[in-house]
Amino acid sequence: MTVTYETPHDGVAVITLNRPDRLNAFNGEMRKDLADAVREASGDDAIRAVVMTGEGRAFCAGADVTAVNDKFNVEDVLNTEYAAFLSTIATMPKPVIAAINGPAAGIGMTTALTCDLRVMGEETYLMSAFANIGLVPDGGLSYLLTREIGYARAYQLAIEAEKLDAKRALDWGLVNRVVPNTEVLSNAVEWAKSLTQRAPMALSLTKRVFRAAAQGGLHNAMAFEAQNQRAAIATEDCREGVAALLGKRKPVFKGK
Description:
The chain is 47% helix and 16% strand. The chain contains ten helices and nine strands. It has helices at residues 28-43, 74-91, 107-114, 141-149, 151-160, 166-171, 184-195, 200-213, 218-233, 236-247; strands spanning 3-9, 12-17, 49-54, 96-100, 104-105, 117-121, 125-127, 163-165, 177-179. Strands 1-2-3-4-6-9 form a six-stranded mixed β-sheet, with helices on both faces. Strands 5-7-8 form a three-stranded mixed β-sheet.
């Protein structure tokens, strides 16, 4: 399998890109396997948080250019095979943490930034490598980078294909945490485990409204928040959270 799927802890799924000999670069099989894995995590009610990482010394080196031939229709592949897992990551009703254990380049960088939260190794880097082979960023990277760091920085990174080290990635808000490379996965898993203790419906609805807010204006964001707050306040978890606060105890959330 080019992607492994494990549930080492209650409520946490760990998805690992598993082509270490190719630095976890995407071929057709890995695109399909990753789409299957994130779909499984999204649909499993027992899973409350997801960690995605890479086997070996890279997170993902991008697309495997050796798999490109005359029959390769890049537009179709992007709009179907890549979109199948990127859209699921962005819309699944649970947080996805990228454990960036090694370089994340090209569509690998896109995949990492599509995740909701990111833990990055202090000795690794992000790289929009497309310009090095005469291509433009894809998979939504132009949107993700512009939203996160602004047009000027995003454009510069794209056209110069500069390696963005962990310190600057953290300073610019592209990652949430920087830790020693050997601790990336364990840190991300511990973070995921802590999130499983929170109210699943609240996490899901919060993800939904923040994703929507990034794409729309203030008025639309306020209305969408109100709509989802109505759903959240009606849950048993909300009632449990209030009761626990008043009772000065730790809440026990059941995802209902």
